[in-house]
Design brief:
- The protein has about 240 residues and is of the alpha+beta class.
- It is built from nine helices and ten strands.
- The protein has a three-stranded antiparallel beta sheet. Strands 6-8-7 form a three-stranded antiparallel beta sheet. Strands 4-5 form a two-stranded antiparallel ribbon.
- Strand 2 and strand 3 form a beta hairpin.
- The termini are far apart.
- The N terminus and C terminus are likely disordered.
Length: about 240
């Protein structure tokens, strides 16, 4: 089995909570992902049938996580794989002359991404996560600029934070902006990532999974720390579903 940086984590073995704190998850889905005694390899549909969520709620969590199926098994990608996919998309768009700030031909990008040994299902998952929803389900699509910038920065920071080195703010911002279309780079600021990082010193930054960045740009907490009306809503809803 390939290393974590190259492959997604099969859902059946993705039981380290650190691997799943990219967004606030409903308790039933967290139960599947964080179990110390996870089920055997399963596909998306099998997991859905075992989770008391509506298909719409499950599908949204699936998209937010960039989850995908590979050889019939549901996989949860690591930050390293997600960053590799993004870099491949940037490279392919440059070589193919397909600006990411324009309408994209997904098939043309996919053919080049596959040359980088990127699983096509992982590529499709990232596109679905970042596309403007007006283009969902079409052969041609357009990425949402702010969503894409924020997501790329978060994924880069988390993948970099796993290395045993201190990451400086200038280094991080430079690496982030280099992997964005030029017209998007002005959006790549620390304000865009508020709630997802901690500065140990004035010029050193690490990923902080105590907060996650939602698509509206506001920080949220992981389910373990969730409070307020939204957390109560999930709690009440799924308490009833489990009866």
């Amino acid at each position: 089995m390939a290393g974590e940086q190259d492959q997604g984590i099969v859902f059946s073995i993705a039981h380290d909570p650190q691997k799943v704190r990219l967004l606030e998850l409903p308790p039933p889905l967290l139960d599947v992902l964080s179990s110390t005694d996870p089920p055997g390899p399963q596909g998306k549909q099998s997991i859905l049938l075992d989770t008391p969520l509506s298909s719409q709620e499950f599908d949204q969590a699936w998209v937010d996580l960039c989850a995908f199926e590979l050889e019939g098994r549901a996989c949860l990608p690591t930050p390293g794989l997600l960053w590799k996919v993004w870099r491949s998309i940037i490279s392919a768009s440059t070589i193919k002359g397909l600006p990411l700030d324009k309408v994209l031909d997904v098939r043309s990008l996919a053919s080049m991404v596959e040359d980088d040994e990127i699983p096509i299902p992982a590529f499709i998952a990232v596109i679905e996560r970042l596309q403007d929803q007006k283009w969902a389900g079409q052969a041609r699509t357009r990425l949402d600029p702010l969503k894409s910038v924020r997501w790329a920065g978060t994924v880069l920071l988390e993948s970099k934070s796993r290395a045993p080195i201190h990451l400086t703010v200038p280094e991080f911002l430079n690496d982030w902006r280099e992997q964005l279309p030029e017209s998007w780079r002005k959006h790549a600021t620390l304000d865009m990532l508020r709630g997802t990082y901690t500065q140990l010193k004035k010029d050193t930054i690490i990923f902080d999974d105590g907060g996650v960045m939602m698509d509206d740009g506001n920080p949220s907490t992981t389910q373990a720390k969730a409070t307020g009306p939204q957390a109560k809503k999930w709690h009440e809803k799924f308490k009833n579903a489990r009866r």
